[in-house]
Design brief:
GO terms for molecular function: methylated-DNA-[protein]-cysteine S-methyltransferase activity. With 157 residues, the protein is an alpha/beta fold. The protein has five helices and six strands.
C-alpha cells in the first residue's frame, strides 16, 4: 500500500510517497511527474518520517548523504541512471555525458537526460547535480531556480 505526506522544505512544499519497501517519490509542487493516486495519507509512516528527518538535516547543512531506502519504479535503463545519480558526490556536478559513460553507454546522452528528468525522488536521488557538458545549468523538473539553490546549498556552484 502506498502512503504519502507533505513536507514544507525551504524551497517549497514537497509531496513524499512511500511503501513498505522504501521511498517511491519526492516531488516539489511544480513537478508534473507525480502519480495521480498517491495512496493513503499517513503522516506517521516510518519511511516518510525518516525522509522528513533526513531532508530537514540536508537543508540545514547537517547531512550530505541520505540513508532512507529508495523503492522508485522505472524501466531498467531509468533505474541504472538513477543509481548513477547516487554516485555523484555531494558538492559536485557531473554532465549528462559523464552519467552515460558511468553506466557504460556513452552514446545514450539524450536518453540519460530523459531518464534524469523522470527521476521521481528529487533531492535524495540528486538529479539536480547533473549539468550540461558546457557547465551550464540545464532543465530541472523542479525548476532551474530550485536546481541553482540546491547546488548553492551544496556549494557546487
Amino acid at each position: 500500500m502506498n502512503r504519502f505526506t507533505y513536507y514544507q522544505s525551504p524551497l517549497g512544499q514537497m509531496t513524499l510517497q512511500a511503501n513498505d519497501d522504501g521511498l517511491l517519490g519526492a516531488w516539489f509542487e511544480v513537478h508534473t511527474t507525480q502519480p495521480e493516486d498517491l495512496g493513503t495519507r499517513d503522516d506517521s509512516f516510518p519511511v516518510l518520517l525518516q525522509t522528513i528527518r533526513e531532508l530537514s538535516q540536508y537543508y540545514s547543512g547537517e547531512k550530505v548523504e541520505f540513508t532512507v531506502p529508495i523503492a522508485a519504479k522505472g524501466t531498467e535503463f531509468q533505474l541504472s541512471v538513477w543509481q548513477a545519480l547516487l554516485a555523484i558526490p555531494y558538492g559536485e556536478t557531473w554532465s549528462y555525458q559523464q552519467i552515460a559513460d558511468f553506466i557504460g553507454n556513452p552514446k545514450a546522452v539524450r536518453a540519460v537526460g530523459l531518464a534524469n528528468g523522470k527521476n521521481p525522488v528529487s533531492v535524495i536521488v540528486p538529479c539536480h547535480r547533473v549539468i550540461g557538458k558546457n557547465g551550464k545549468l540545464t532543465g530541472y523538473a523542479g525548476g532551474v531556480e530550485r536546481k541553482q539553490k540546491l547546488l548553492e546549498l551544496e556549494q557546487a556552484i
